[in-house]
Design goal:
13-stranded antiparallel sheet, globular, Jelly Rolls, single chain, 3 domains, 6 helices, 517 residues, eight-stranded mixed sheet
Amino acid sequence: MAAPESVRAELERILASPEFASSRQLQEFLRFSSEKALAGATHLDQVEIAQVVLGRGDDFNPLDDASVRKLASMARHRLEQYYARSGTQSGIRITLPVRSYLPKFEEVVAEQPQPSPWPLRMAAASLAAAAVSLALVWWHGRLGMYGTARGSPPLVMLRTSAGDLIGKGADVPPDAIRLGPELGEFDSVTARLAFTPEREAHQAGILVWSGPDHFVKLGRRFFGRNQIEFSCETPAALSGTPQPAMFDPDGQSGQPIWLSIRRQGNTYYGFFSRDGQVWEPAGAPITPVQPLERPRAGIYACHGRRQAPSATAEFSHLSTGVVFDPFDQDSFAAMLEQGWQIQSTCDEAVEFSFPRPVLKFRLKPDVRTCNTEITRPISGDEWVLETRLDFFPIPGVSAGISVRGDQGSVRLVRYFLNGPSISFIHDAHTLTGVPDLNGSPAVVLRLRTHAGVLSGAVSADGERFRELPVKTPLSQLGAHPRAGLRVSVTALPETEQFPAMRFYYFRQGIIGLRNYR
């Protein structure tokens, strides 16, 4: 454990930082809880915090009042922001674990890059073949998990208002339902929702929308208690009353929840997750009697046909695409029948499997120079593509995300380029690499277009991204673009077993939402 005097010095720096200086309650909470932890406390009660920090009386009841939980959640979030901005060089790290009110203190020891178990070499012939007319750039910098954050996922905020989606028509205001793109036959809408419903009929979530009486929705709500609702309405089956739902034990914890509705033809599957990686069913699959026509991804927030205070729903990571948990060979076959394609020169040298929660690529020992891509069409000039990848790079083998048009391709991959790296490769034009994180942990790779320019970024946590120092005009890729996952072999190391490539998802961020009416 860090020395108390060092912890207190770091605490003062945090309390004086922009993340905490504007809130007296946050300052008092963090100071009070830190002193308790330094004194050796093993438990800190909500009632004690409410009385000391918030000035509440003996009648404070944490079952009815979530103010302490909200305060702790905000402090936890502000601490993360501090170490992503002001505190990147701090020698002490103060964190607040989930479901705890006692901080933890850790000394930050600068890690030295560990030598790779793979030889620091690249087959010269393969590099030359890949680098015809290629400008090779090596960017001398190191990716840090808590470096300067840029390009964080956008937030969409909705305030609940009077009205409801159930029954004949929808009488909510126009901006209570916001719609994005149409969903493909094998597609999903996914988002992380920060929403704490505390009053009767408070509700917010994601939906697949065909019309006011024709939709599938998944969200958090309060009807007598906190619930997760996965339900459907069609013109022939208007309910008019709330449909059954499952209990949500964390509904008032202040913690966000991940939601995902996944379409396979006319059947819709609802899932929720605490971390965005391992998913649980939100109910039985839904197959509407009347198929949804031109279904669109969307979000909603309302509080029923009653007078009630508004609550805020905060959506992030709003996207379409595919999530590989849970997944199996039947799901994979359906995916390839409904808009996705495999293009491969590897024949049977690449194997696919689905150990939860990933799609795993495995190269066989007899593999030769080849590529495998799993892609779907994309449209428009503005998009954001992401995947989460777990892969330890070796010379000559790369894995990541790609975009291909009829005149060229760009890929952002984990690659062995003078050592483990994250590389932006524009075929026959540019190869730019930045050093990988120490130990090559799972990372989120992102390709983004804006104003006709394509760029790449990498993140350790999916929240704070580092952009690579290179950009490519989207026009150089040509027409009919497709995007997806790619594995490539260009030079063969001497090994009997290749590291597996594990992909958690492929997502396309939803850019631009419109009111439903």
